[in-house]
């Protein structure tokens, strides 16, 4: 029960702080700037990111029953990957936004138009959704024949690959290439801007 109480407290703080931040930014018209738009989206992604894993983890602690169905595992993995990549790419968009605000403050509001801000938010969401769907589909189209017990508190890609009878080389290579492209493009965008 102490683990349940600790993680429940952490989860409640995360939910209240992120939803509170979203509400304040949404209701206060003085915060209708690109920076706060990005911050609102980052708070939303952080809320979703934590809500994918924590509720199931809390139920496992409470009921001492660590069971998740195959389809629920696929959904959890897909959502986890989606929000993880979204968070990374939104931070890149925020870095570009701050660079523009610091280096060109006089033309900042002209260059960071609502259309560009929408694109800088939509691209991370779109790319991360595609990436999550791609990797989840690749992972769950493999043939699983070994034990179905994973010693983790959520469904993750790499532990699942240990239980497959299929050749995982191409899946691991795809994962490495996509993660590398995402990482290198993020770093490159931050350094170029």
From TrEMBL:
Keyword 4Fe-4S: no
Species of provenance: Heterocephalus glaber
A GO term from the CC aspect: membrane
Domain G-protein coupled receptors family 1 profile: 17-193
Molecular function, one GO term: G protein-coupled receptor activity
Keywords: G-protein coupled receptor, Membrane, Olfaction, Receptor, Sensory transduction, Transducer, Transmembrane, Transmembrane helix
Entry's localization field: Membrane
UniProt xrefs under Gene3D superfamilies: Rhodopsin 7-helix transmembrane proteins
Protein name (Swiss-Prot/TrEMBL): Olfactory receptor 1044
